[in-house]
Amino acid sequence: MQRMAAEAGVSQRGLHRHILNATGLSPGEWLVTERIARARDLLEETGLSVEQVACAVGFGSAAAFRERFRRVVGLTPRAYRVSFGTG
Question: What is this structure's pTM?
Fold first, then answer.
C-alpha cells in the first residue's frame, strides 16, 4: 500500500479511501478479487497446475489459494477448470 500510495502521489489513507469509493471494497478485498479473476482466466485458458496458478496470482500457498477460491467462486479450482476450461 505504501508503494502504491507513493506512486499515486497520495497518502495511504487517501489511497484506501479512493479504492473503497471506486470499488466498494477495501484494498485487501479488492486485491483478492483481482487475484481470483486472474486465476479464473488462467484456469480457463492455460494448462498450468493449480500450484502454478496460485503462485502466478500471488498467493503464498496452493492451500490458501484453494480455500479462498472456493469461498469466492463456490467451486474448487479443479472443478472450475473442468466446468469452464477450454480444453
Answer: 0.85
